[in-house]
Amino acid sequence: MTRPLGRAARLAAAVAAALTVAATTAAAPGAPGAPGPLPGTSSGAPHAGAPGAAGAAVPASPAELPEGVVDLPVEFTVDNVNRTRGRCSADGEEYTVRGHLTAPAEVLEAEAPAVTLLVHGTNTGEWIWRLDVEGRNYVNELAARGHASVTIDRLGYGSSDIPDGFASCSGAHADIANQVVGQLREGAYGVEGGEPAAFDTVVMGGHSSGALVAETASVSFGDVDGLLLSGWAAVGITDDTNRRFLTAYQTCLEGGEEHAEPGDPRGYVHFDPTLEDFREGGLGADADPAVAAEVEEHWGRNPCGVMISEPMAILYDLDLVGEIDVPVHLVFGAHDVLRQGVEGYPGLFTSSPDVTATTLDDAGHFVTVDAGSELLYETAAAWLERHAPTS
Questions:
Q1: Is the pLDDT of residue 118 over 60?
Q2: Which of 213, 221, 208 lies closest to 339 in space, CA to CA?
Q3: Which sequence spans correspond to the domains of the chain?
Q4: How confident is the model over 12-37, as a mean pLDDT?
Q5: What is the pTM of this model?
Q6: CATH superfamily entry for domain 7-46+63-387
């Protein structure tokens, strides 16, 4: 039986086409009213192909924790509510969101420590920041450069609670992320094998639509000290994005995919309909075959309530992004098949005191693990030194 969808869900389908037109117009360099690109920002056309060598990949060297760094499981008790400025519905129940705190031990002992809460996108998970490949593990690389990170599986993903897939939405995920920020500031969360640190400075980082969550949280609650955004723009949506979204949307209209296991909650769907789509949509042609093979292990399903609320969330974001008043750094992949023509997006952050952008010339959508991600690690660490240092 098909699960009935609310008015906002039905409206999401109606605005999808309009969103594509609006986003493309906003992104187009030279379009009337469009901001120009930042100095040093580059772009390129997407690769025609995707990594073809994944099947022949050699085993990856597992990611090793840097010396002096701790990696501790953490959990946060949150309410699945939406108090953001973007309207969508959630069930209001209490859940547990789980993840990890990865940090130099000396940061956790500092008088005024700083941390970055990292939020994954719709079609990934906490793993996008913690890929088990040496040199491609974002949190390890940032910790080696002196910075603390908290990664989470969003509600409905991975190790976190898995409710009915229609129980939450994009705005509620932003509210939940803000609740996690508050708990990080207060030191009011669970830590396995340690004591919770209270952080004076909290930056929010987001990959893909996790950046949409971060932007929504920032403008709605004003409780973060900066935004580190990667693989995301609320403009430049491509035909590849539309094909994936509309296929997933139709499946959600029918109640979601079949249960993976008996007793699994209903209302979940793959954003990428095939494993090949997942690989090609995530990685550029120059990705390390070992990385591609590891990434393929993480092709997973997504909660329908979040998926179907994202078009409206993007429209809200385009209307509100100019109010974000904290420093912002953006990272794009030149060969991202899901977003192109994003040069003007940094210019939309008109209230931010400092907006910078970096483009990885050889990367696709999964910029945190793709070819050239070393530049992402270096620029993120340098940005944190300026805007969120631990003292």
A1: yes
A2: 208
A3: 7-46+63-387
A4: 40
A5: 0.88
A6: Alpha/Beta hydrolase fold, catalytic domain (3.40.50.1820)
